[in-house]
Amino acid sequence: MAMAADEIAALIRQSIPDASVEITDLAGDGDHYAARVVSESFRGLPRVRQHQRVYEALGGRMGGVLHALQLTTATP
Amino acid sequence: MTEDVQARIDQAVKGSDVLLFMKGSPLFPQCGFSSRAIAILDRLGVDYASIDVLQDQGIRQGIKAYSDWPTIPQLYVKGEFVGGSDIMMEMYESGELAELMTKSGVAQKAA
Question: Where do the structural domains in chain A lie, given as residue ranges?
Answer without folding.
Answer: 5-74
